[in-house]
Amino acid sequence: MRGRFAVSGCLLVAAAVGLTACGGGGGGGGGTKAQGNTLTIYSSLPLQGASRPQSEALVNGMKLALKQANNKAGKWSINYKSLDDSTAQAGKWDPGQVSSNARKAAQDKSTILYLGEFNSGASAISIPILNRATIGQISPSNTAVGLTADVPGAEPGEPAKYYPTGKRTYVRVVPKDTIQGAALAVVMKDEGCKKPYILNDKEVYGQGLGKNTQNSLKTAGIPALANEGWDPKAPNYRSVASKIAGKGADCILESGITDNNAVQLTKDLASGVPNAKIYGPDGVCESAWADPKKGGIPTSVDSKVECTVATLDPNSYPPEGKKFFADYKATYGESNPDPYAVYGYETMSLALDAIKRAAANGNDRQAVINALFNTKDRKSVLGTYSIDKNGDTSITDYGLYKVKDGQLNFDRVIKAKGASA
């Protein structure tokens, strides 16, 4: 999930991360072995702003997985360092801070893996830096398709421009947005939507997911009336709502992130298009959007909104997943943890497993990267999955969540018909 700033072309990415080129060639420079008997795993997540609750849940999940492994991966001791990729001034992830975090990990000779980013746009910055340092990266939440594949929703030059060495170093444990777009289309059609209207927040995540959903809606026989951008800095969206009402829309997709004024947008759409159902993707399916106590939408809007996220009800998970929820409750006292807690746990678990599978070469960055991409039929808290050559997971199920009294409540599993992982 999660949005990112608009990047157009290889040169802008290069300027943002300090790269000298965006083509193939080059390497990590020198050997690829991390130094010392204790290996370091970094995470980089926004610990300030609207995404803070989700990031804290991710970190808690990571810490739990490491604790249960006794801070070990095979014969190697593991040191975990949590970094903040947000700033107080930005109130969300910040490009400069992301770059600083990635460089910190790249310059640390004990680094073996990097867990992050939360936002797809942040990963667009950190992937090239870590790629040149031959450091494997696992994201618990990125869904923007262009990070891994040249498919509908990707921008020109994606994904090649993120891998200056020509080798892949990035994987993710959540499905990409071709899957989420198909899931959203399934929900809309199943719930009787005839005239869908798409708004996107003008960031690559929002724009890409908007395109993916638009394609899936067309395939489902209910083409979108429009796919337009909203201004994240607008004081209100009454004119936008009036325009959509005039088009006769009976459902609206907000394709973007909470940080981009999605709460105000939702309130104005609910008021100005009262008969339309409002759908949100995982970019808004969080407490900062749903809970008025955390600045979210008022409870009077609850019945009008639904959202998707690749997290299911605890009872829908395999035994490994059910054990996680029990252990999380015992450790942190939360019986209904944030949907991203389980992804934090699996991200760290996969990292430890890859190091362990690299065996005697568990301190070799390239060997651990190879192990990540050789992940096949892994039985995990999320279910059984594999990682493909692009770094994508084979998991395709999404959860549909409804809001009641400011709380996200799991409704049902959505099977993304017609989408490929």
Question: What keyword list fits this structure?
Answer:
single chain; 421 residues; alpha/beta; 7-stranded mixed sheet; 6-stranded mixed sheet; 12 helices; 34% helix; 18% strand; globular
List the topology elements.
Blueprint: H1 10-17, E1 38-45, H2 52-68, E2 72-73, E3 76-84, H3 95-107, E4 111-115, H4 120-132, E5 136-139, E6 170-172, H5 177-190, E7 196-200, H6 204-219, E8 227-229, H7 238-246, E9 251-255, H8 262-272, E10 277-280, H9 287-290, E11 305-309, H10 319-332, H11 341-357, H12 365-373, E12 378-380, E13 383-385, E14 398-404, E15 407-414
Parallel strand pairs: 1-3, 1-4, 4-5, 5-6, 7-8, 7-9, 9-10, 10-11
Antiparallel strand pairs: 2-3, 11-14, 12-13, 14-15
Helix pairs in contact: 2-11, 3-4, 5-6, 7-8, 11-12
